[in-house]
Input
Amino acid sequence: MDNEDRERLKEVRGVRIAANMSVDGLVRELRDCAFGAGRLAEAVDIYEDMLKENTTKFLGIAGAMVPAGMRNVIADMIREGYVDVVVTTGANLVHDIIEALGEHHYKIVEDVDIAVDDVWLREHGRDRIYDVIVHDDAFARLEDFLRGVFDKLARKAENKRYSITELLKEIGENITDNDSILRCAVARGVPVFCPAIADSMIGLHAWIYKQMRPLKVDVFDDMKELISLFCDAERTGAIILGGGVPKNFIFQSALVAPAREDGREGFDYAIQISTNTPEDGSLSGATLEEAKSWGKVGSNAKAVTVYCDATIALPIIMAAVHERVDRK
Amino acid sequence: MDNEDRERLKEVRGVRIAANMSVDGLVRELRDCAFGAGRLAEAVDIYEDMLKENTTKFLGIAGAMVPAGMRNVIADMIREGYVDVVVTTGANLVHDIIEALGEHHYKIVEDVDIAVDDVWLREHGRDRIYDVIVHDDAFARLEDFLRGVFDKLARKAENKRYSITELLKEIGENITDNDSILRCAVARGVPVFCPAIADSMIGLHAWIYKQMRPLKVDVFDDMKELISLFCDAERTGAIILGGGVPKNFIFQSALVAPAREDGREGFDYAIQISTNTPEDGSLSGATLEEAKSWGKVGSNAKAVTVYCDATIALPIIMAAVHERVDRK
Amino acid sequence: MDNEDRERLKEVRGVRIAANMSVDGLVRELRDCAFGAGRLAEAVDIYEDMLKENTTKFLGIAGAMVPAGMRNVIADMIREGYVDVVVTTGANLVHDIIEALGEHHYKIVEDVDIAVDDVWLREHGRDRIYDVIVHDDAFARLEDFLRGVFDKLARKAENKRYSITELLKEIGENITDNDSILRCAVARGVPVFCPAIADSMIGLHAWIYKQMRPLKVDVFDDMKELISLFCDAERTGAIILGGGVPKNFIFQSALVAPAREDGREGFDYAIQISTNTPEDGSLSGATLEEAKSWGKVGSNAKAVTVYCDATIALPIIMAAVHERVDRK
Amino acid sequence: MDNEDRERLKEVRGVRIAANMSVDGLVRELRDCAFGAGRLAEAVDIYEDMLKENTTKFLGIAGAMVPAGMRNVIADMIREGYVDVVVTTGANLVHDIIEALGEHHYKIVEDVDIAVDDVWLREHGRDRIYDVIVHDDAFARLEDFLRGVFDKLARKAENKRYSITELLKEIGENITDNDSILRCAVARGVPVFCPAIADSMIGLHAWIYKQMRPLKVDVFDDMKELISLFCDAERTGAIILGGGVPKNFIFQSALVAPAREDGREGFDYAIQISTNTPEDGSLSGATLEEAKSWGKVGSNAKAVTVYCDATIALPIIMAAVHERVDRK
Output
């Protein structure tokens, strides 16, 4: 290994497993590994750096994180200050509210490949998300809850035009479950963005409600807030779970921001956890390098993609980060 | 092979390649193949059935279809009546407009793995989408165009509140390029839905415009139209490219529709082309069987998922469908 | 677009679908597309170049190509001179022989997600390969056939030590079905390599046979032939279906060959069709660029990876190649 | 949730992250999660069960586990009795020997997407495996070492015919590094199978050696031992990393074994860690359910597939297993 190499290469050292390792103890062992292991360890290092700087941290949530059991992880990330801004799919909010209402998600215990007959499930009022089942009753309770919230809003001010973020804040204020992502966000003052809210049960119930009474929600009104959050930040970080609309919506907030005085532009830190790969040209699988060509991620940003199911990688990363930077 | 088998199994017969096969000639050969080949052939059969019935056909477009060169395929699908409703990501509209304005997408000729230095691209005003390059100039022209449209709208009626579909119709009416997806849709009366429009350059330019003058676009106002399109249809079909918001938004239109008189509910036909697989629990990769548990796809629907890059599968399917049902 | 760009970039031009397009007519339309479409078209161009030069063409076959219905495509590739050397998994040979014996593969007509109960299949003597079923009877016939061949070999020369390639040639000479891959290869003088032959039903039946009588097959004896085929070739091309052992075994034949007089080393042409992507570090998903670092693929080779189910991409490529270079 | 449900469903409970969790503490939290998280936790439970019974445990190793840094994990699994039989690709043995000879693997520190120019690497004697670099020197040392071993074998008995397992045992006995997988296996009496050994640098060096002196290695001779290991076991378990030949070779050992007295057939336990999914029909991605149709995995086996990069999942599983069953 000559000098030129030394700068760009480091020796792969084998992980050694010991009994009773802490999660971060294991992650530190993975630092000198390659492939996914090395990337996972790098994600923890980047998150640690993010937390040690005065960084505004944007969390993007796509994929059925709540039905899979990641609700507490995410709610605690908000509650304990590991994230400052949330951009999510509507579905994760829907399932968060369902749990806040006392309803549950159920996991198919037998192998999903054999235990499932979706026509039978339909006939029995069960809805499937891979190996998770939700009962139709849960959605009925969601409808009652949302109708109540919409009615309250109408009573307060029938003609008020809300931004999506404001609407979600109003909904969050009607949630009492302290484990709710939306409740935690409202309590902590963390804004929640959901640009594709129409594409969720919230959208459906808004449609039903609007058959009777007005409910005005503007699709662009909260962009100013998101972009300001980026512009006003000293440093910016993105934690992207699964791609989709949240990924792009977070990154595009960097597109219109002027460069910093020191020339920095784009996100300073970025962690992406996704099972999508770049080869099909999809945005979800696009590399963080590609994001640099757009100025979404800074040229010198610390950035890593962990190609992994987020239900595996997120708990590991958060457990390791907790060991290093405990905010409780 | 006993009788029970005969009903559920059919013999795999090898494809035989001949010179000068038509695309559908090849696809017909794939019918008795398994894995992806069989599914591709089944997709063509289902599309043919859809077209022979009085079916309202919903097209969902996710992934960078326009930058990859699928713009004419999609515009022609609309123009020639192969689809009746479009639900798309904002990005595909942005890139459609860019081409309508005379700007181009460029393909990196050398291998994308070695030819690309994203920091260099950034410094030289180029933006990358996998192996496609767009120049910053193209986005500058987009901005001028959109500002012009927004100004026109303001002059017509400053305080009018648009639905997203109405806004897109207004934009489409300002496009003169007959190869434009949006232009074709307006010309043909095909409504275009884009629930996550804020998550695109259109969103960014709306934000910039709104710094100066009002532009009111409601996030829920066009749901009524989408749902009516589903409810009023004699039969319904979905062609889903790549998952994402368009997939779910199309399918959720079925969730609130009452069952048909003959008991049918959900989509009667569904074709999904995606590189996502179900194992990570994502909606994009969810099977059409899973969609049956929700009532999104009918219990007896003809439905198939082709696990394939849509830039490969879509042209093949459309070329084969054209041979069978020529609408020109 | 400045001059520098012109060399590296070309305009993406939209595919236009016409009725009654030939397969190559469509593929030519895909040439100026990006993502998978562009790569598929490039694969056809590279194959055409390969055929126009005096190229020794190595075909690697992994994945269940024969059960899926690709047997005739591959047999015809051999018969008509589109390939000169075959490296395969044992399984594809096993299933080729099964069909040669008059047995069949069956496709599950209903959706594989719901129609399958693997425990039931086991109880009823059916073996599943995704959506393909083989009956236990087929393997019983295979056993009889192989035992007959092994007996013949023993009668000819009990203590002869065969290379794997020689053993396969002996087997192929006992096949009468002209559609058999192995039969075609023997008839055409195309050597068939199968380094992991022990990892197949042929291996199992060899083991059973060896309980009674000797059968000596050396694992390294045919490497000389493979390497000579590479070294003696004027130009070399690889068509890799699905990765695995065949991919590496083909490429490693280039590792020990001296550079050509003109400095060329490694394969001159390479086409890889795979659903594996590089991000997990697997050899199957490794890029052809990576192969250049090893000298497996030449620095100036024409090489492309089509990320696609081979049952879709192979028939399209072969139909298009037939239109350009008809060898029948 | 009615009674019928209770048997098949269990409530998804959210993971809660605490500071200083042990790896198994975290894994236990994942037990009531869905998707990948639940499957990872189930893998640990199954491994624990395997270890508590008198189970013969077969480890299949595909993918570049050693270059990625998993060498110690695997060597310790052998040393500490977590596995009893190893089936591997040749490449993992090659890279194990390279490290045993004091050579190293290096990781590219910068992002692999930008830091890599494979033609430059070739010119500078570096070989790439995704983000790992090996120097040509390492392979030169391998050649010297293997030549030495082959010479020793020739001196011992020029005409002896080895099985692959025997050859690997001889090689292992010449390794002095106690961290070597092959050395540990020999020391512990764990047989190592490598059916595709010809498809590796060991194969290449055998070929070079055989130009001068005989080296006879039979491809089928060690199948008897593998099958006996299966047949003689009270209970059998498979831990499959990454699919490929090792996966099938392990499972096919169950195909010819008679059913147990209690009717059991196939593997009693199976854990599969893979990024491959079943949709393309490949053996690597085939489900363990599919394996039941063949009798490779028992009808009542405890079996789970973790769809994950093995460099992430394996260390987690092993750290958690160590906490539960410490064999040191």
The first helix of chain C runs from residue 3 to 8. The longest strand of chain C covers residues 297-307. The radius of gyration of chain C is 21 Å.
